[in-house]
Specification:
A 7-stranded mixed β-sheet has the order 3-2-1-4-5-7-6. It contains 11 helices and 7 strands. The protein has 220 residues and is an alpha/beta fold. The termini are far apart. Strand 1, helix 2 and strand 2 form a beta-alpha-beta unit. The chain has a single domain, classed as Rossmann fold, CATH 3.40.50. Belongs to the SRR1 family. This is SRR1L protein. InterPro entries: SRR1-like, SRR1L.
Length: 220
């Protein structure tokens, strides 16, 4: 019910999916649960596995091979979340990702037209707002801060078996009319996020070393 809420609210059905931060599902039960839910989600929303691309710099060579056997695609580079939807309705599956990834994703698609074609399953934006001081949210994660009033959010229901797997996880979407009702000034502020004052960006940046094997590393 939670994952169909955007469609019931008028959102365009996703034609493709991007998954960030799945983690080491070969050794983590929580990551395996998240992968299983992703596969069921694709089936429920009728998104072909070949239209779902994943990236996590910690993937091992074996995990990369398993994802290929499941028919999923791998993004070749660490985009740091800066993935353009390129006009296609897109589901972003980002359970327990760092705040900077969500902020980068919003920046890369910073227009009412693009955001209205996105659905994000990941850490609750409302929870992020509640946990951070307003000045920190606006300074370090300004795109999350600016889009809050244009966001609809439904939390995934609690389940005792999967408490650690999907805690603080919500489905977010951005109705076009709500976005158009935001102050026009916010759409003109499109500076790329850099995080100079952020002590812990919570993401593995491009060029950082990771304990795993990225698709790029496998090919080289």
């Amino acid at each position: 019910g939670a994952v169909r809420a955007p469609l019931d609210g008028g959102a365009e059905p996703p034609a493709r999916c991007v998954c960030y931060g799945l983690g080491r599902f070969g050794s983590s039960p929580a990551a395996r649960g998240q992968l299983a839910f992703l596969l069921l989600l694709l089936e429920e929303l009728r998104v072909p596995p070949g239209q779902c691309a994943l990236f996590d710099p910690v993937f091992s060579a074996q995990e990369v091979a398993v994802l290929g056997q499941l028919g999923l695609r791998l993004l070749p580079d660490n985009e740091e979340g800066k993935h353009s939807i390129e006009g296609a309705a897109t589901l972003f599956y980002m359970v327990h990702c760092g705040k900077a990834l969500y902020n980068n994703l919003l920046w890369r698609n910073w227009s009412a037209e693009a955001l209205s074609k996105m659905v994000i399953i990941g850490n609750s934006f409302k929870g992020t707002e509640e946990r951070l001081l307003p000045r920190v949210l606006e300074r370090d994660y300004s795109y999350i801060a600016k889009v809050l009033k244009g966001t609809e959010e439904v939390a995934l229901p609690d389940h005792p078996r999967y408490q650690d797997t999907f805690n603080d996880t919500s489905v977010h979407w951005f109705p076009l009319q709500k976005l158009k009702d935001l102050s026009p000034e916010i759409w003109g502020l499109v500076e790329e996020p850099m995080y100079p004052d952020c002590d812990d960006v919570e993401i593995i940046r491009k060029g950082d070393r990771a304990d795993g094997c990225s698709p790029t590393a496998l090919e080289s």
